[in-house]
Design a protein that fits this description.
It is built from twelve helices and 20 strands. By secondary structure, the chain is an alpha+beta fold. Strands 10, 11, 12, 13, 14, 15, 16, 18 and 19 form a nine-stranded antiparallel sheet that branches. The structure holds adenosine-5'-triphosphate (ATP) and magnesium ion.
């Protein structure tokens, strides 16, 4: 029985644990708070801060896993290199996890590999930001080099927005490096995630492209397949293969691209299942989580079949005054009565504004939206 140490126990981790358990793995789920989604389905749960390198290495020494599977970016990645050197497989590789944790590292690497991206420049302070804005021009996007789900991102139309963008980025960044990236705004027709699977004994394979929409940089809805021009898709696959090969290791990667009128532009990638890929739980014979565990264990993937079209949309907590609260879902019964609707409720112990609490899976956008309208989150009144 293979032992997996899962670093990060969110909703993607939870589905991954279910897939891993189905193939007989023993899973220890870690996160910085108790009863996180993946902990609810794992064999064992450990609560600690994964940015603490010493604690991380102690946990690995004590648990002796076969695989370390990072589910989040906030991990002391330097420690992962030591762990890998001690013979434990980091999925997909310590290098991949390390380079993708920071926007600048993966962007620089893409550049070195000759992969086209939006024009960009870095800035370490407000003066550098103003210079960078003058070079990149408007509109453009300023992002902290370390953040996720659109946190700290600002779309700028004029130089006067510089102060606001700097404050937003530095207030919402993660980690301790004060550095932002200024990116040319790509007026894309659509954006896609190309789920890319690197296998040990077989060639790299891809899921049909997933189209998605983000609001304020955060995932709102996705669908599969997104129909894009054959030549453009071919180019996307070529780029995804180059960059994932460079990062190394085995597993599933979510490679994000912008599609313009005649081209495909690399945006970023996750060396793990992607939030937009949750739609594969509805559409494919093997979900992105099933594919990830198969690739990790070195099992064959005979084929990836798109069984039907599908759509997914998130259920977020919104419009509450209290910062953290216990909650109930309302209307799940009504939503499930709609034609072929499925739902994943993540089981997060507490909600707050903007927190992703569940996802709706359906056959099209119309039904997905109907289901979304029927569901609400209600704050639980706790008497004491
Ligand atoms: N240069 C750009 N031009 C146009 N839109 C952009 C650009 N950069 C980002 N966006 C928009 O913002 C979204 C989030 O950006 P990005 O993927 O870089 O951030 P993120 O915080 O890492 O998101 P996540 O980790 O959740 O994927 C993109 O999916 C896209 O919709
Ligand atoms: Mg992204």
């Amino acid at each position: 029985m293979k032992k997996i140490l899962l670093l990060g126990s969110g909703e993607l981790g939870k589905e991954f644990v279910i897939s891993a358990k189905r193939l007989g793995c023993y899973v220890i789920a870690c996160d910085k708070y108790p009863n996180a989604p993946a902990m609810q389905v794992a064999d064992k749960a450990l609560v600690f801060d994964m940015l603490d390198g010493k604690k991380l290495s102690k946990t690995v020494d004590e648990t002796k896993p076969d695989f370390i599977v990072p589910e989040i970016e906030a991990i002391r990645t330097e420690e992962l290199f030591n762990i890998e050197n001690n013979g434990i497989t980091v999925v997909p590789s310590a290098r991949a996890v390390n380079l993708t944790m920071n926007r600048d590292a993966i962007r620089d690497r893409a550049d070195e590999l000759g992969i086209k991206t939006a024009n960009y420049k870095y800035a370490h302070n407000k003066d550098e930001l103003i210079k960078a804005l003058e070079v990149i021009g408007f509109p453009c996007i300023v992002k902290p080099v370390m953040s996720s789900s659109g946190k700290g991102q600002t779309l700028l139309n004029k130089i006067e927005d510089a102060n606001l963008a700097w404050e937003n980025a530095t207030r919402n960044m993660r980690g301790d490096r004060i550095k932002v990236i200024v990116e040319e705004y790509i007026d894309f027709q659509s954006e896609i995630t190309l789920l890319t699977i690197r296998q040990k004994d077989s060639k790299t394979i891809f899921c049909p492209p997933i189209g998605h929409k983000q609001k304020d940089g955060d995932y709102i809805e996705s669908w599969q397949p997104e129909n894009i021009n054959k030549e453009i898709l071919k180019k996307g696959k070529y780029i995804a293969e180059i960059i994932t090969k460079d990062l190394g290791g085995y597993g599933l990667f979510g490679v994000e691209f912008f599609i313009t009128k005649n081209d495909i532009i690399f945006s970023e990638l996750s060396p793990r299942p992607h939030d937009t890929g949750m739609v594969t739980m509805y559409t494919q014979n093997l979900s992105e989580f099933d594919l990830h565990i198969r690739a990790i264990l070195g099992y064959p993937i005979a084929n990836i079949l798109l069984l039907r079209e599908g759509y997914s949309t998130v259920i977020k907590a919104d419009g509450f005054e209290k910062t953290r609260f216990k909650y109930n879902f309302i209307g799940i019964d009504k939503a499930l009565a709609l034609d072929d609707v499925d739902i994943r409720l993540f089981g997060k112990p507490e909600a707050w504004n903007g927190r992703r609490m569940g996802v709706i899976l359906s056959k099209n956008r119309k039904i997905g939206h109907q289901a979304r309208e029927l569901i609400s989150i209600k704050q639980k009144i706790i008497s004491n």
